[in-house]
Amino acid sequence: QLLENIFRSVNIALVNEPAQLCDRMGGVNIWEVVEAAATKPFGFMPFFPGPGIGGHCILIDPYYLSWQARQYDFVTNFITLAAEVNESMPFYVQRMVIRQIANSTVRLQDAKILICGVAFKRDVDDLRHSPALRVMELLKQDGAANLCYVDPYIPTVDVHGTVLHAQPYSDQLIADSDVVVITTDHTNFDYEAIVRNAKVVIDTRNATKHVRQGREKIHLL
Question: Cα(142)–Cα(71) distance, rounded to whole angstroms?
């Protein structure tokens, strides 16, 4: 079980780091890169980037082996490096949001930031170690005062002592937001409507892959 979770952690990190590099290189689409690599008929298993790793297994379990290894004077560099990369992703998403707001006419303190999905993965009501929640905490620390979220599975969240309630989804809510951040790709979200009505969309899950109209508004992880 530990090896299986470590395998996933390392391979997710292996695409999370190039995802940041692709952005630095001028917007190379990491999702297309992975899909192209996956056309090889053997020897490649596709993993995809995201805003961070949540839940318990992949995020926490690898540290058990790292701790045990130290009892034998052994350092698990690979495991530790993968964890560092994966845990850096909420900070990367935070910077993406700040960058988009800096290109707009509002200040971060006044910007209306809508988080779409706060569960740690699609179509569950589990908030454990959710990267979306970490993104919200980081933005709040930076002074974002108008944070709100939609998630049909999570009625309330606590963001550093402030209890937020899930907003009822509406096209108007999307339109009124300065930045919409897709952090959990629930299947019941209408991504075409989100893109159509939003000013800017930061899509950390490639949930808008099949949306054709309004691609200029989308900024992929």
Answer: 39
Q: What is the pLDDT along the chain (221 residues), one digit of tens a residue?
A: 888 888 999 999 999 999 999 999 987 899 999 999 999 988 899 999 999 998 777 777 777 888 888 899 998 898 889 999 999 999 999 999 999 999 999 999 999 999 999 999 999 999 999 999 999 999 999 999 999 999 999 999 999 889 999 999 999 999 999 999 999 999 999 999 999 999 999 999 999 999 999 999 999 99
Q: Shortest CA distance to 115 belongs to which of 166, 161, 54?
A: 166
Clarify whether 57 is annotated catalytic.
yes
Residue 105 CB-density burial (10 A; 0-12 exposed, 13-18 middle, 19+ buried): exposed
Closest CA to 6 of 67, 95, 83: 83
On the 0-12 / 13-18 / 19+ scale of CB atoms within 10 A, 3 is: exposed
Q: Which of 22, 57, 116, 148 is catalytic?
A: 57
What is the SS3 string spanning 173-206? Answer: HHHHCCEEEECCCCCCCCHHHHHHHCCCEEECCC
* pTM of the predicted structure, to 2 decimals: 0.92
Query: Can you list the alpha helix ranges (DSSP code H) found in 103-216?
Result: 131-141, 171-176, 191-197
